[in-house]
Amino acid sequence: MKSKLLKWTMRLTLLILLLFGLLVLIVLNPALLYSTNTQIGKFTVYHNKALPAGIKLRLTDADNIIVTSEFYDTNLKFDICLNDGSPYPALMEVFLGKAFALGFTSNKIALCGNTDFAANTMKVNGRKWNLTQLIAHEATHCLVFNELGFWKSNPVANNPLWKWEGYPEYVSRKHLNHLSLKQNITSLTEAIKKDKDQWGIILADSTIAPRTYFNYWNMMQYCMDVKKMTYQQVLSDTKSESLIQSEMMIWYYPEE
Fold this sequence. Notes:
Elements: H1 2-28, E1 36-40, E2 43-47, H2 55-66, E3 78-81, H3 88-96, E4 101-104, E5 108-111, E6 114-116, E7 121-124, E8 127-130, H4 131-148, H5 161-173, H6 181-194, E9 200-202, E10 208-210, H7 211-226, H8 231-236, H9 241-252
Parallel strand pairs: 2-3, 3-5
Antiparallel strand pairs: 1-2, 4-5, 6-7, 7-8, 9-10
């Protein structure tokens, strides 16, 4: 009986290892689930249909945004996986969670929603995101992973979410007419007063940002633009999220 149990345990373990190995192989090789790929600058675009109009412009604009990151690496190349019939984006959502897009490892970006490169938008459940910003956000996640490595990156390192998501928001959105932190805080404050339960905040270009991410962005902007911290310093700082939030609001209301 014990020998049979041991035999089945070994078989099950081997099966799990094989399935895990297959998953890793697919994650690292999106070409396995796409019919073709096209090189656009430093981006390899994986797709099943003809390349959409406007994609080169959006990728170029996204690259021009992320160059401002302290972790920017001129030698890093990205894989862009389109949601045009391949199961790859949906498979990544199974393991990484539902999202507009996912940036993982040091160079993989899966676009999970309905993209319109010509209009520079992505839609998911009726919500519209700025596509250039979204690609830049996910590319920044890749830059951070490339710099910090597996063990110091989320989910393994469990960095606070406001730091982990706030930095990609800070890098990707600061070029979209949101340079004034005080105006950004005002916009969020007024939106909460109008409807405290609303999921997102509508931006000037009619796209949306989750209110939580918008606040993370504000906090990162406070740390980096007001306190003049680097992202490495923000990651190393031991102050709590609530304390940083309080400091930011004291700065916002100096007369009080």
